[in-house]
Design brief:
The protein has 147 residues and is of the alpha+beta class. It has 3 helices and 5 strands. The protein has one domain (30-143): GMP Synthetase, Chain A, domain 3. It has helices at residues 3-25, 30-50, 83-103; strands spanning 57-66, 69-76, 114-121, 127-134, 139-143.
Length: 147
């Protein structure tokens, strides 16, 4: 094979590699990002609206809802729940978010989706615990508050 052919093959390979890198690193247009965020907020809102009323918590807030990331907070009244109830509640809401995403045709484990549900006392009170989806293990993990 001649030197010119080898240079041509290498050049063609570099051209392909450059095009692939640009396609991989190119950000979605703002309209697409906004539409994805609206769908994600809608999915999170459907979950919150479907939760039954609970005497232990005052409300559930959606802190972040965008494609690939869902963060919710259960706001408890002081003294209304202990660690076992908080663990059960946060894990149940995280599981509900997984189900809501599955019903929307998403695959949280494959998509490495962040799902985190924390519990706080009142509006900005101390952290009481949190549950999160671990896509590597494909399960919900509870994390008690730090001492």
């Amino acid at each position: 094979m001649s030197v010119a052919v080898k240079i041509g093959i290498v050049g063609f390979g570099l051209l392909i590699a450059t095009a692939a890198y640009e396609a991989y690193t190119q950000a979605d247009p703002p309209e697409v990002v906004a539409a994805q965020a609206a769908v994600s907020r809608d999915i999170a809102r459907k979950l919150v609206d479907s939760l039954p009323a609970d005497a232990r918590w005052n409300r559930v807030s959606i802190d972040d809802a965008r494609s690939g990331s869902y963060r919710l907070t259960l706001h408890y009244a002081p003294g209304k729940a202990g660690p076992p109830e908080i663990e059960t509640d946060t894990k149940a809401v995280a599981q509900g978010m997984l189900l809501q995403l599955a019903m929307a045709g998403r695959h949280p484990g494959d998509e490495r989706t962040v799902i985190a549900v924390s519990a706080r006392q009142d509006e900005a009170g101390s952290l009481l615990g949190a549950a999160r989806f671990d896509p590597a293990a494909d399960r919900i993990v509870y994390e008690p508050p730090s001492p």
